[in-house]
Design goal:
Elements lengths: L4 H13 L3 H20 L6 E5 L6 E5 L2 E2 L5 H30 L5 E10 L2 E5 L4 E4 L15 E12 L2 E7 L3 H11 L1 H5 L2 E9 L3 E8 L6 H6 L4 H9 L4 E6 L4 H8 L7 E5 L4 E7 L3 H5 L4 H10 L2 E7 L2 E2 L4 E3 L6 E3 L5 H14 L22 H4 L5 H30 L1
Parallel strand pairs: 6-8, 10-11, 13-14
Antiparallel strand pairs: 1-2, 2-3, 4-5, 4-7, 5-6, 7-8, 9-10, 12-13, 15-16, 16-17
Helix pairs in contact: 1-2, 2-3, 4-7, 8-10
Amino acid sequence: MAVTEFNAALNQVATERGIPVESVLESIRMALASAYKKDYGGNLEEIEVDLNPDTGEARILKDSEDVTPAGFGRIAAQTAKQVILQKIRETEKEVITKDFEDKLGTILSGVIFRMTNDTAILDLGKAHGILPVAEQVQAEQYKANQRLKVLVKNVREGPKGPEIVVSRSDPNFVIKLFEQEVPEIASGVVKVEAIAREAGSRTKIAVSSNDEKVDPVGSCVGQKGVRVQSIISEIHGEKIDIIPFSPIPEKFVAAALAPARVTEVELDMEEKRAIVSVPEDQQSLAIGKEGQNARLANKLTKWRIDIKGTTGFFDDDGKLVLEEDATSKEVVGIWDAEIAKQAEAKEADNRPEVDTKPEVEGTGDGGTDNTEESKAPEQPVEDVEEKKVDKNEKETAEEETSAKDSEKEDA
């Protein structure tokens, strides 16, 4: 089929606007019908436009009868122009809205080209993204021509068309960054169970693994921390705590207060309240600066956390040393392997000792001889005989010495 001037222009408009060719043709039909009604009257429902998509030839049909006026094409061209453009713009908006609705919750890269009342306007390609103050990170500075990664949060209708609301402060923004950097999360082996974020300051994220051979925390951190460092660089130095998720509330609450080490967790199921005991040297870490660590742990676990101090401190071996009696107490681990190891150690310590000493023969009356003589170890027979010989020789030597002394006195 030969490409006519009308056909080429039709395809060019559809390509530039990113809309289907049929939508452009429908816009032209509606515009021609409106132009006929304006000049000649009639009802739009009764007017039908027959448009050739190859040549652009149009006929006006009314009750299946050709009523096209002479020279209608030249007369209606100017009238139909604005209607056609309007319809094309409306169709374009619909296409853009549908396109970005399919991208909700994904990360896009854009360039800031204008700042309006502290609101950043980004160029996202087909549309402009709006980064309002509420979705900005207060610690970040934005300027024109700055390239940013943003999360598509909402698509709404504005006075000038669809508005794409983007965000950098939303917790899902950090989750999507992890999906880009950690293949295990993208494949579903590692799952993000919960997240709590104070944008620009600190984020806590709990992860789990579907494969026991895959360490969820290690996968997110990466070799020498390369994966998590890439994410920290994107969010301009915001601290990230990656903790293992556990379906056991006590373990999850204890892990959520990291880097503080917890000795005990008591749960009140009715009030959904967790009373956490930490030693004195860990209280400041558990609470955090201005209560931030405890606040984020509360958001992460959905438990109300009360921190209770206990006397003592952790030694270098991870044991809790109590100041009253200087005894040690093992820390409650947050990993199943650690808890099992501690349980085995405690079980070994509680085993009764087996007495392997031989029983002492009883006395004549059936009792047990508990005297010191009975407890004294038996000496070998050879040692006893040697001692007897040494004693006899000593007595003989003394008698000879006494006899010699007597002879001297007599002399």
